[in-house]
Amino acid sequence: MKVKKEITIYDIADKLGVSTATVSRALKNNPSTSLSTRKKINAMAESMGYRPNLFASSLRSQKTHTIGVILHELNSSFITSVLAGIEKIASEAKYNLIIVHSAESVALEEVNARNLFNKRVDGVIASLSSDTENLSHFQQFQNKNIPVVFFDRVFEKSDDAKVIINNFQAGYDATAHLIEQGCRRIAHITSSLKRNVYSERMRGYKQALLDNNLKFDEKLVVVEGLKEEDATRAAKQILALKTLPDGIFITNDFCAAVVMQVLKDAGIQIPRDIAIVGFNNDNIGKVVSPKLTTINYPGFEMGKVAAHNLINHLKGVWDLSLSSTVVIKSELIIRESSLKKASTSHK
Fold first, then answer.
1. Per-residue tens of pLDDT for the chain, all 347 residues
2. Whole-angstrom Cα distance, residue 291 to residue 133?
């Protein structure tokens, strides 16, 4: 099959009897060319099937106007909201996105980083996989002065630019709320403690227990993945305890919804028998019964801030090194799943 020749600005100029410089200015919507001429040239370009050669343009400018986004997963309301925030700011600034995900694998994360580097992205926004232990695969960007902004899952003690919430305070607030509701034996279901988000929430959980003279018990901590089967396994581990907890802090709303269902199927009444607090403020928390108390994790705002800071750095109006860590405010949202006091008063 014969491949059609790519239409160029020379073809458009020849068709309309104008100079290639005029065509070039018109296609860039340059006001030095009259509006009527711009309209005529753009209409002709569209009818002829002209496509701008972005590759050649990027080679000339050394800029691709592309941002790489590395995610640890895609199947998450939180990640979807972060992406929406990134996309809003990027599109307004006329940047394209290349989105890749590691599926919680550092090996795939390394491959993705190399691919984005080879695609000559202008900058990177990244959230780390569960088993990432160092940032050596991001050094290639640093060597070429390509900025990287980490969000959510980061190395908090690194000097890299990052956007996070105060996970310690959020874990503390969730646990303190359960204590305020009368819980004295509080379990914690979490994920890989290699990641700052889970280790810091765990630290907040332990500190809230300590501040309220409650003993930390390792048997009440369950470390699992974030899939449905992981949450089911965690719930069964709780049910297998000799003495059941009277409260559970779960660091993911989807997992919390699964755990709640398994407990309810086993005859547990929530929150009367076990009060539950989740994390993320995913939509699922509003449709489960009882509705889920949770920590609001403002993903859309996090995405906007990460993209805004990166693009401003690329434009030279902001230096990422001046403020390496941005902390977004989170808050406890109280719903029925944790209100043990109200449930016991109606017994």
1. 455 677 888 889 888 999 988 988 888 888 888 999 999 998 988 888 887 765 555 545 467 899 999 999 888 889 999 999 999 999 999 999 999 999 999 999 999 999 999 888 999 999 999 889 999 999 999 998 999 999 999 998 888 999 999 999 999 999 999 999 999 999 999 999 989 999 999 999 999 999 999 999 999 999 998 889 999 999 999 999 999 999 999 999 999 999 999 999 999 999 999 999 999 999 999 999 999 999 999 999 999 999 999 999 999 988 888 778 999 999 999 999 999 877 665 44
2. 36
pTM score above 0.90:
no
Amino acid identity, residue 258?
V
- With contact defined as beta carbons under 8 Å apart, do 116 and 98 qualify? yes
Are 36 and 114 contained in the same domain?
A: no
φ and ψ at 52, to 5 degrees? -65, 140
Residues 97 and 221 in one domain: no
How many domains does one find in the chain? Answer: 3
Q: For residue 40, what is the domain's CATH number?
A: 1.10.260.40
Residue 57 lies in a domain: no
- Whether residue 292 sits in one domain with residue 143: no
